[in-house]
Specification:
239 residues; mainly beta; 5-stranded antiparallel sheet; 4-stranded antiparallel sheet
């Protein structure tokens, strides 16, 4: 048992999948069907109760893996997109598993979920005390958690919006209400928050190749460029 998410293993019939696969999920009663295609050709298709709650999906940048998130049912599945093998199912202590995203090198993935029981911050299943939202990095190879993102007061934790630098070493997250926050995408360490111009929330952000510069868009449409090393404002453009 992992200290954060409980891990179950499962497999399906081994078939093949190409890197340009697309996804379709159909629900029949309590069963869900996961179909992976390369253009119009079906590579593999699986029907199981474990797919009935899927709310979002994403392929790894290299096309080798697939994350299927079941927000509201509290789990995310990691699939081998080439063979059709389900590698892991991660069960959150609560029913909300908000988002998941691969890092650019496809070696790790980022999860955000609401932990604890009844949002009290304590999970009676494991006896583990949780933060309100736990964002964490997980290894694709081992299936284990490698880091928990713990920020400072006012820092945005990964909810749904994340952007990585081209080299995959940094990431910036936004939630539409708070400031953009910059993190180490390898070990999950908090780096800094960026200024909220006029107190406005940040809706989206992006980083350049080495993560030294970033662009942030705010709720009113203002776009600003920041020096990621210092957090200093470099330029600002109004809508």
């Amino acid at each position: 048992m992992l200290p954060a998410l409980l891990t179950l293993l499962g497999t399906v019939a081994a078939l093949t999948s190409g890197p340009n696969a697309t996804l379709a999920v159909n629900t029949q009663g309590t069963l869900g069907t996961l179909t992976v295609k390369d253009d119009a050709q079906v590579r593999w298709s699986v029907t199981t109760q474990g797919l009935a709650c899927i709310t979002s999906t994403s392929f790894s940048p290299d096309g080798h893996f697939l994350l299927a998130v079941a927000d509201g049912c509290g789990y995310v599945q990691l699939w081998d997109a080439r063979s059709g093998k389900r590698l892991h199912t991660y069960l959150a202590p609560q029913d909300r598993l908000l988002a998941a995203a691969f890092t650019p090198d496809s070696r790790r993935f980022l999860l955000n979920y609401i932990p604890g029981e009844n949002h009290t911050g304590f999970d009676t299943r494991s006896g583990f005390t949780w933060p309100w939202n736990e964002s964490s990095l997980w290894s694709v190879q081992t299936g284990k958690r490698v880091a928990v993102m713990t920020g400072s007061a006012g820092a945005s934790i990964y909810l749904k919006n994340v952007s990585f630098s081209g080299d995959g070493r940094r990431m910036v997250v936004t939630d539409g209400e708070g400031p953009a926050s910059v993190w180490n995408a390898v070990n999950g360490a908090f780096i800094r928050t960026l200024p909220r111009l006029g107190g406005r929330g940040a809706t989206k952000a992006s980083l350049n190749q080495d993560g030294s510069r970033g662009t942030v868009t705010f709720v009113d449409g203002v776009t600003a460029t920041f020096d990621m090393k210092t957090g200093a404002l470099k330029s600002r453009t109004s809508p």
